[in-house]
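Input structure tokens:
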């Protein structure tokens, strides 16, 4: 074909053809060749050919004639200009770019990962420092405005975990490349990649390495990091504790007296009329009610929960002693109108010095069973005049100091109607006296509880068997620990008479209620353990608390009011896992860096660019068809073994 025929068409077409030639002579045929930037050679579907051969060979399917050979003289004349050394055509021309100092610091070495670990360490240190500061202190409302302690811990724990995972995942990625320095399954590459991404892949990696490789530590750290934040949350707890919230107060008596002049009438009740109404009410309530409690002393507890150290108060004490051995059993049958044996007709029971105490008495048709009786020492009042032949002397408490009331009390335990005639009664002598009581008190949920720790009274023995006067009127003074406690004149007689008014002369079946019980606290006779002491202690407490309720002669014992406060308690045992993860990650990353530098291995880490540039060779990839499914690829990866090897100056994964 002629030159004109090759250049037929428009002039623009001619210019285009000329622009698509090599050396202005070789035409360009799209798709017939490409330029390798490494070898700088022209390759075609027919293999590698020289430029001279392409000049002489028409393209496939072309009707063009080969171009005429270039004049050798022209080539020779331009040899000095266009000649290229043979080595330049076979050696790859490497791409070169300039990098900054910071690029090299962050990418070529491990400073970024170490900085990330340092951030994690500082976050953990910030948490530990704040928790140590607040440990044992009151729970703060906010650490900083709007941020609670829990929120503070949560935020810094989340930052620490995120910063900690970065160097660990990068170290796992680095060990992935070092793992293939020996021939390994291609599937291991996928397993290492999964481990650098999360806990599930790390678990798979542990099964692959059998926990015998350094990378196993990194996988374990990734798994344990799941509990990093929850463990930090468990470190802090907010229990409550007692805290003093001001003083508490309770009244104590230092003195007791009466401002009322008393006219002593032997056979009347004028003394009772002069007793303060509050005391009468307290005594009657103590005797009649069966709830076992009395009105407490005045107290102030602002929080509802208070306590006091031991304190002293003037009060009334009681004591009893069994003298049942003095009783005499008698069972007579006579009809004398003089009523001997303490005034009992046809008695069958127990007597004390010819005075009737307990048992059956009366006529055949009107007999009664006496289950309880009282006898006042030093008195022959109407209470006992019917039964006694004179005043009574004390048997046990003749030497007692500061007495208020001394009396005998006899009863048949479990007394009921139609008792056996030989039922054995109990006889006790009891005494109320002035004393100083030492209390231990607490106030809980609005209820004051007082316990008597000890009692004190001056001891001034009087010899012999003392016959007490009808009403004691002398003042009393008790000294304890440089404090004086006093009772005014006539106060003892007033109080003694008020207490005595509570005691019945006797009780029989006519005294019981519908349940067969004696009234009020006297029902102790029918109920186990048949003990009169709780009843008498109740009377003594009622009198003592009434004394402490007076405006005069009282003072205040100061205690402490308690409230609840939430405080910060740090359970440092929960710091074990976060602390271990933090330290072990430093060991893991440091060891990985040391091994990489010792083996002069590039810091490829988990870079995807490294996978692209140093992945499988063309020879290894040929076996994987384009149409291969993912499951087939995974199955083949389990069978293929590869290793890192240098080929043509490149480090690639090659088949073994």
């Amino acid at each position: 074909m002629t030159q004109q025929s090759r250049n037929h068409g428009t002039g623009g077409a001619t210019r285009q053809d000329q622009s698509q030639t090599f050396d202005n002579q070789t035409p360009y045929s799209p798709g017939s060749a490409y330029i390798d930037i490494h070898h700088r050679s022209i390759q075609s579907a027919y293999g590698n050919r020289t430029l001279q051969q392409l000049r002489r060979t028409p393209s496939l399917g072309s009707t063009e004639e080969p171009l005429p050979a270039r004049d050798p003289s022209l080539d020779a004349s331009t040899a000095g200009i266009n000649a290229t050394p043979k080595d330049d055509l076979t050696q790859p021309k490497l791409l070169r770019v300039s990098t900054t100092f910071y690029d090299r610091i962050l990418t070529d070495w491990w400073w970024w990962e170490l900085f990330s670990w340092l951030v994690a360490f500082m976050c953990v240190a910030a948490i530990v420092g704040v928790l140590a500061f607040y440990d044992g202190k009151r729970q703060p409302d906010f650490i900083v405005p709007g941020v609670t302690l829990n929120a503070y811990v949560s935020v810094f724990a989340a930052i620490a975990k995120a910063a900690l995972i970065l160097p660990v995942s990068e170290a796992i990625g680095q060990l992935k490349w070092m793992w293939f320095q020996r021939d390994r399954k291609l599937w291991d590459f996928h397993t290492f990649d999964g481990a650098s991404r999360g806990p599930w892949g790390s678990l798979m990696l542990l099964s692959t390495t059998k926990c015998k490789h350094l990378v196993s530590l990194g996988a374990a750290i990734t798994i344990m990091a799941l509990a990093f934040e929850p463990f930090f949350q468990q470190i802090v707890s907010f229990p409550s504790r007692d805290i003093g919230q001001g003083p508490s107060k309770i009244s104590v008596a230092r003195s007791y007296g009466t401002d009322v002049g008393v006219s002593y009438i032997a056979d009347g009740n004028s003394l009772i009329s002069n007793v303060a109404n509050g005391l009468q009410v307290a005594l009657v309530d103590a005797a009649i009610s069966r709830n076992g409690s009395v009105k407490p002393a005045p107290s102030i507890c602002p929080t509802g929960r208070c306590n006091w150290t031991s304190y002293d108060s003037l009060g009334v004490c009681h004591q009893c002693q069994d003298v049942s051995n003095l009783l005499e059993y008698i069972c007579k049958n006579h009809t004398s109108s003089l009523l001997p044996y303490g005034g009992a007709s046809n008695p069958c029971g127990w007597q004390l010095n010819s005075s009737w105490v307990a048992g059956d008495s009366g006529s055949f048709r009107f007999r009664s069973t006496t289950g309880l009786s009282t006898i006042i020492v030093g008195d022959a009042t109407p209470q006992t005049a019917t039964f006694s032949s004179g005043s009574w002397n004390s048997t046990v408490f003749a030497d007692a100091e500061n007495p208020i009331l001394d009396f005998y009390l006899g009863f048949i335990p479990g007394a009921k109607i139609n008792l056996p005639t030989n039922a054995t009664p109990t006889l006790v002598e009891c005494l109320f006296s002035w004393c100083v009581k030492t209390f231990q008190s607490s106030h809980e949920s609005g209820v004051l509880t007082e316990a008597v720790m000890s009692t004190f009274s001056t001891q001034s023995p009087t010899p012999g068997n003392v016959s007490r006067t009808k009403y004691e009127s002398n003042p009393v003074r008790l000294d304890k620990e440089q404090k004086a406690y006093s009772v005014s004149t006539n106060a003892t007689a007033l109080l003694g008479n008020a207490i005595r008014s509570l005691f019945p002369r006797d009780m029989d079946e006519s005294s019981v209620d519908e349940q067969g019980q004696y009234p009020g606290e006297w029902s102790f006779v029918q109920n186990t353990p048949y003990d009169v002491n709780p009843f008498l202690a109740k009377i003594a407490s009622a009198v003592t608390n009434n004394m402490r309720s007076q405006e005069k002669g009282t003072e205040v014992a100061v205690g402490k009011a308690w409230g609840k406060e939430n405080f910060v308690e740090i359970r440092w045992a929960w710091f074990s896992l976060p602390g271990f993860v933090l330290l072990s990650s430093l060991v893991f990353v440091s060891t990985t860096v040391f091994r990489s530098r010792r083996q002069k291995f590039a810091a490829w880490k988990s870079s995807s660019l490294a996978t692209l540039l140093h992945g499988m060779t063309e020879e290894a990839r040929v076996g994987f068809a384009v149409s291969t499914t993912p499951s087939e690829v995974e199955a083949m990866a389990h069978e293929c073994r590869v290793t890192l090897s240098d080929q043509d100056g490149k480090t690639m994964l090659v088949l073994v």
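The chain is about 35% helix and 25% strand. The longest strand covers residues 426-444.
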